[in-house]
UniProtKB/TrEMBL annotation:
SUPFAM superfamilies per UniProt: GroES-like (SSF50129), NAD(P)-binding Rossmann-fold domains (SSF51735)
Protein name: Zinc-binding alcohol dehydrogenase family protein
Domain Enoyl reductase (ER): 10-317
GO molecular function list: oxidoreductase activity
Pfam families membership: ADH_N, ADH_zinc_N
Amino acid sequence: MKALQFSATGDLAALAYVEVPTPVPAVGEVLVHIKAAGLNPSDVKNVLGRFPYTTLPRIPGRDFAGVVVEGPQHLVGQEVWGTGRDLGFFADGSHAQCLTVSAKGVAHKPSHLSFAQAASLGVPYTTAWDALERSGVGKGTRLLVIGANGAVGSAALALAKIRGAQVLGAVRRPEQVEALREQGFEGILLGQPEALGGQVNALFGGGADVIFDTTGFWLPAAVAALAPFGRIAIIAAPVDGHVQLPALALYRKGGSVVGINSLLYNCEQCAVMLEQFGRFFDEDLLPLPTGLREVSLADGVQCFEEVNQGSADKIIFLP
């Protein structure tokens, strides 16, 4: 089969489009014929050597959608989707024509999603779902999502709305505020960090119960916008990994910080999440992805370069 593969890390030049043997599923595994596979920034960072536990040689790719062609009889022929920390790191990933994965590591693909749409959602939606779960977002929760226009931020808004939360999005540009309002969400414009507390308190009297910072830059400012006993969920940090946290203000509010890392969950754990929220697409409660850029897997090496250079396109490989 054809696949993208790298045998060294540290340089995207190590990635190549090659012929490799089609994998054979072990007992308890399925062989999935990949119909579409998402390209995430973490896939690019993997080739660049940012994850020291990756074993080589390796086929990258975490997110996929396809059809089961071998495995337990009740799954053969089923349209499935999946994601997880195993793929591309400890086991070969989805940037190939086929992959093997635990039979419990695939979820039934929502019928309202195309293969390409399903392959675009794994990492962002499981990350958002985990953030909402672990920070206790439910009915009536006052939630602020910083970076609400990004893939994870948009997923968090949509999933929180289903949970009955009061949702507020924070973005950088006026047109992004307008886009949020067109989607039915209140939005605020991010400016000076010291102004965030006042902006949030003007809309959520007493502050936000949960603040989800998807950018890595607003953790210190978020403390002033937090309600008593509030939670701040984070998925990113500055390049050096450090921020100046106003600890006195945080503990006086009884606040807490929740780290969210999608790479803590294997394919089986992610499949449980996908089954939980996947039904909302078929119930027309979640928006269908748009604006995807579908690319032949043969042109995948160039796409890794583009993402590394800062491209915001959501790229989907079609093997």
